[in-house]
Amino acid sequence: MINRILNIASDVSLSKTTGKFMSDKAYGFDTVFFISKFILHNSINNSFDKSNLRQKAIDYIEDIFQLTKGTAGAVNYFLETINWLEFSNVLVKTGRNTYLVKERDVLEYLAETSENSYIFNYLVAYQCFKNDGLLPSFDKYCSEKDLSKKEEIVKDIYKVFCKLSPSIGTPDTQWSKQLVKYPFLVLGFINNQRKVTRELRVKEEFLTIEDVALNIEGTRSPIYLPKKNDYLKTFNVNYVRYYLKGYLFVSYSKIQTSEIIIVDSFGTNLAELKLAMLDDSKNGVSMSELDKEQYIKNVVKTRNQSIQHQFRKGLLDNNEHVCPICGFCFEEFLIASHIKPYSKCDDTYDAINHYNGLLLCPNHDKLFEDAKHMTIDAKTGEIILSPSAQNSVDFGGLKGKFVARPYIDNERRHYLKWHNERFIALK
Ligand SMILES: [Zn+2]
């Protein structure tokens, strides 16, 4: 596939006018991954009309990226990814709003894992730099240790961009500099390089996975809590290094085959569930009311099972198999208990996110359910009981106890806070 990508991107250059160059952070590998899945799922005979898919894309993006409904610009993640895929020759424009999936196997590769999408972005940027004679400069940039000398190389490359790229428009605007910053992020991340800012300054810090992802601030959590998307956390750097060897500017010690196996399926499950939901709402319309009701019931049942399955798996994969309240550990009986109940979840992300859960024994699951009788203080992990639970022989002893520390982490706190508020409101 590496050679396939280099081959289809063989004519990619800054001077190319169709599709824009990596002009915006929405070309983050995660966006490309999720939008590729969306395009594959919604194209008929390898074609699609972007205006027909507009609303559906917005719904999908708002959920996947946890945006507040109606966030301005959500649709741009869709439109800009289309531009990027057109620029890279994966899609071909066939009409004002219509596109042909020209390289279906490549699109399938992108939709397979988010790592593949990063590999793709890297190779397209690489090929573009190669065609425009910029690879030697980038190589020099990687080996240069002095930050101010690195900065000079970035600025020299910027001059070439200004000369070649019609997307630059007026030089020296924030926008034009952004065009240069982005390939520096994509190429620099896996080559262990420093950050380049919009002002084309080179910072001390090294690039992280968040820098090449969309990773906009979540709207769900307070600003001081970093958003933890599972597909970012489990990004397999060794997989990427392994497949990009031969196209990297720094060398890494030999990577074991066991290190290149991708185990995470969170992003895939999230996207597939969301796509199925969007299909249901569309298909339901033409049915009779009775059929529709039955149909929705069946779909909801299947989807609930699927969500519950993914959710439980996430909890089992990431936690000790033991009730954090009492130490009960007969695994078959442990219940994947939502903190914010599934029925009250805003989106698919909440529903399958294992941070929105605890593995509890049947009794404590019941006690915790919907915050009726027990909650766990989001700040301290202290167990707080309703008056009736406190007075009961069975549960009274839990008063003032704390749950195991590893459970009280940042993302789970966000959900526990919801649970605490609900507990108070129900009093
Ligand atoms: Zn228990």
What do you see in this structure?
With 427 residues, this protein is mainly alpha-helical. It folds into 2 domains: 2-209, no CATH class; 266-426, no CATH class. It is 50% helix and 7% strand. The protein has helices at residues 2-8, 29-42, 50-64, 74-87, 104-112, 114-131, 135-143, 147-164, 174-190, 230-233, 237-244, 266-283, 289-318, 348-352, 362-368, 387-391, 410-426, and strands spanning 47-49, 91-93, 98-101, 194-196, 202-206, 335-338, 357-360, 374-376, 383-385. A hairpin with a 4-residue loop joins strand 2 (91-93) and strand 3. It is globular. The structure holds zinc ion (ZN). Zinc ion (ZN) binds next to helix 15.
Summary tags:
427 residues; single chain; binds zinc ion; mainly alpha; two-stranded antiparallel ribbon
Structure summary:
The protein is 50% helix and 7% strand.
- Strand order within the widest sheet? 1-3-2
Estimate the helix proportion, in percent: 40-55%
Distance between the amino and carboxyl termini: 59 Å
Counting structural domains, the number is: 2
Bound molecules: zinc ion
Please specify the SSE layout and strand pairing.
Blueprint: H1 2-8, H2 29-42, E1 47-49, H3 50-64, H4 74-87, E2 91-93, E3 98-101, H5 104-112, H6 114-131, H7 135-143, H8 147-164, H9 174-190, E4 194-196, E5 202-206, H10 230-233, H11 237-244, H12 266-283, H13 289-318, E6 335-338, H14 348-352, E7 357-360, H15 362-368, E8 374-376, E9 383-385, H16 387-391, H17 410-426
Antiparallel strand pairs: 1-3, 2-3, 4-5, 6-7, 8-9
Helix pairs in contact: 2-3, 2-4, 2-5, 2-6, 2-12, 3-4, 3-12, 5-6, 6-11, 7-8, 8-9, 12-13
Bound molecules: zinc ion.
Residues 323, 325-326, 328, 360-361, 363-364 line the site of zinc ion.
